[in-house]
Request: fold
Amino acid sequence: MSKTARVYELITCLVLAIYSLVMIAYARLNPVTAKVRGMKSYTFPVGVYALMLGICIILIIKNLVNEVRIKKVFSTLTLHERRQLRAEEKEQYVFEPLDRRVIITTALIIAYAAAWNLVGFSLATMAFVTVTAKVLRPATKLETCILVAIATTILIHVVFVKLFAISLPEPLLSAILS
Reply:
């Protein structure tokens, strides 16, 4: 695995571990009883977060041990040997900066989450999918991105609103229709 992938895996595991700890603490501090006798409503999610936390801890330890081992190997290489490494071999020792598409996509995800309460799920999803598709594949025609966004929004709406009866925020649509 390349050094860049290891660094991002470590960052992801740390973020997920912190998130799991926060969610476990939240569930413990805000107990709510469920309809099932003897079971609190957070019992299952706490189990899932505990499992996720355990996996993250294992991956963090594995990642750190692997990093120490690789640094030890790299430090034993002479300057001449380092220059002789093939591109594939250099990947495991050299960190590559983030592709700008990763940063843009991360910003789009944050904007998408914020847009739900402003324009609603449907418009936010269509805009998010359209822009993300164009950022990740600039050669794709805008019309294709828009069609994919419409299809994605309809599919999510059918599955979550119609099938699972989950209410999604639609403040703009509610304001127009009322």
